[in-house]
Design brief:
Elements lengths: L22 E5 L24 H6 L8 E3 L8 E5 L7 E5 L26 E12 L5 E3 L2 E3 L4 E6 L7 E7 L19 E7 L42 E9 L5 E2 L1 H8 L10 E2 L4 E10 L11 E6 L4 E12 L2 E2 L3 E5 L7 E6 L13 E10 L7 E3 L3 E6 L2 E6 L3 E3 L5 E6 L25 E6 L3 E7 L3 E2 L2 E2 L2 E6 L7 E2 L5 E6 L6 E4 L9 E6 L14 E6 L4
Length: about 550
């Protein structure tokens, strides 16, 4: 029998693994043997385990930052180990451990060191073991077979340990960021301290990396295929998207949305923009001069735009250490009517030209649109930038558009008196003798003001003449009758705005009476009604 205190199992388990390295591993019962995960919380972590103290003090590694085995989540688990090192392994007795699932029969989920069920299982000390969805998921009604992983190696600096940062399921296959849209496509991200001496303290902190995997006979185990968006140490680029409300000055990003959501009392209007606000979507591309050996060439931008924006233009501006280029218009509103933008960007990088552009901003301009009667939410839309040696993707932050304001108010005097006349008057127009107020107040509403009347009467006797409107002394009179006649119009503004239509009226314009001098109106008081209507539209 093998002593349970033996860290290195027989047959050289550690010797058969890749030496002088570390591994971030994912296990799920349908895809692996689920080996080396048996848990025993009573077994102490070896004192010589790399960066043991740093791991236990690292925040974000869960309740068990480092222990023997893992919890074995229902849909899989991700952890970090040192597969080639003997301190990674521990043999533990199976005498008091029940099998988790008898359906596996003789091909059990633990690796036995002898044929007796009461033997020992080889388990591993694992860093940051966390439950993860390693199975097929659904997104927008479609099954997902692809999963995205961002893996970053951060060399040791200034006496601090090296670090591995991984972000699993951080993006969907279309490039949009994972913001929790799919229950089965859970994002898992961790920062794990690593001792670079395990890698023989590599020169300049650079290490080799690669992928391993295994197939089995299950029908759910599809072929293992990997697509690399970027190759480390060749071309490294970064892209991000920012939404700026140029009307209010508000800036919305994924980070601002996440920070707001984490507050004890989130601000429900933090990512809300007003109807008709001027918006700018900024897609920033940056070539990393510290991490790149080659320029980023032939960059094809494929951008899906949020639906509820009326787009007006798109520009691109290039930058380097010497400054920025002039903004170049690359699309107009008609070009963007399909809510897509495709454009080939000039190369980014300075390896071949020290004055080469190293970053660029594509800015898409428009106005927020919401023709519904409720606040609408704009889902994130992906943008993919494919170039030589690097494919980068980003997506727009989620934001909301408020309803179109329905504020339109008319203020008008209740009464209006005209001068008295003799029945044989020769005056062309009869002027007003009482003050008259006529105002239109609007908020972001274009408007049209109309007036109509059925005439003036003294009992059954109608006044021989017409009520007319003149905009100014030089304009032709508008004769008012039972059909609404246009009096004035106004453009939409971004703030409450009042148009005082009667402000500059004098004795020769505005509302006037035009008597028919060829006919006689019998003496008496003539009265009538004038109907005003203001509509939220312009002819």
């Amino acid at each position: 029998m093998i002593s349970e205190n033996t860290y290195l199992p027989p047959f050289g388990t550690g010797w058969t693994a890749i030496q002088k390295g570390t591994a971030s591993e994912g296990r799920y019962k349908e895809f692996t043997l689920n080996s080396f995960g048996t848990t025993n919380p009573n077994v102490a972590v070896p004192d010589n385990y790399p960066e043991k103290n740093a791991i236990f003090s690292q925040s974000g590694l869960g309740s068990f930052p480092l222990r023997l085995g893992n919890s074995g989540g229902m849909y899989g688990v991700i952890s970090l180990t040192y597969p080639g090192e003997e301190y990674t392994y521990k043999n533990i007795s199976l005498a008091n451990i029940a099998l988790a699932d008898s359906s596996y029969g003789s091909n059990n989920i633990w690796y036995y060191l002898n044929s007796n069920d009461n033997g020992y299982a080889t388990s591993t000390f694992q860093v940051g073991a966390v439950n993860a969805s390693l199975i097929n998921a659904t997104y927008k009604g479609n099954e997902l077979y692809w999963y995205h992983l961002t893996f970053t190696w951060i060399p040791a600096k200034n006496g601090n340990p090296a670090e591995i940062h991984y972000d699993y399921n951080d993006k969907f296959p279309d490039g949009s960021k994972n913001l929790g849209q799919s229950r089965d496509y859970t994002e898992v991200t961790q920062n794990i301290p690593v001792d670079p001496s395990v890698f023989n303290n590599p020169d300049r902190g650079r290490v080799y990396w690669g992928l391993t995997g295994a197939n089995n006979g299950t029908s759910q185990n599809y072929s293992k295929i990997a697509v690399f968006e970027s190759i480390p140490a060749l071309t490294t680029a970064h892209v991000k998207t920012t939404l700026t409300d140029k009307t209010s000055g508000k800036v919305i990003t994924d980070e601002s949305n996440a920070n707001n959501a984490s507050q004890k009392t989130p601000d429900s209007k933090a990512n809300l923009v007003n109807y008709n606000d001027e918006l700018a979507l900024d897609y920033n591309l940056a070539w990393d001069y510290e991490e790149s050996k080659k320029d980023w060439l032939k960059i094809a931008a494929d951008i899906n735009l949020p639906t509820d924006i009326k787009y007006t233009s798109a520009t691109i501006t290039y930058h380097n250490d010497a400054g920025s280029s002039e903004a170049i218009t690359i699309a107009n509103g008609t070009d963007l009517s399909a809510k897509k933008l495709r454009y080939e960007i000039a190369s980014l990088g300075s390896t071949n030209d020290s004055n080469g552009y190293t970053s660029a901003d594509i800015v898409v301009n428009g106005r927020a649109d919401n023709e519904t009667d409720h606040v609408i939410t704009e889902d994130s839309q992906p943008a993919v930038f494919k170039g030589t040696d690097a494919i980068e993707s980003t997506s727009t932050p989620i934001f909301k558009i408020d309803v179109k304001p329905q504020y339109l108010q008319l203020t008008v005097s209740k009464n209006l008196n005209f001068q008295s006349i003799n029945y044989l008057t020769t005056q062309t127009y009869l002027k007003r003798v009482t003050p008259f107020t006529l105002n239109v107040t609007e908020l972001k509403e274009a408007w049209t003001l109309k007036a109509s009347t059925t005439g003036l009467f003294n009992g059954s006797q109608s006044f021989e003449g017409n009520l007319i409107y003149k905009k100014d002394d030089q304009s032709k009179p508008i004769y008012l009758n039972s059909e609404p006649q246009e009096i004035a119009t106004g453009e939409a503004t971004n703030q409450n705005s009042t148009t005082n239509i009667s402000k500059d009226w004098d004795d020769f314009d505005g509302l006037l009476l035009h008597p028919n001098n060829k006919k006689i109106s019998p003496a008496g008081n003539y009265t009538g009604s004038l109907t005003w209507e203001v509509d939220d539209s312009v002819k």
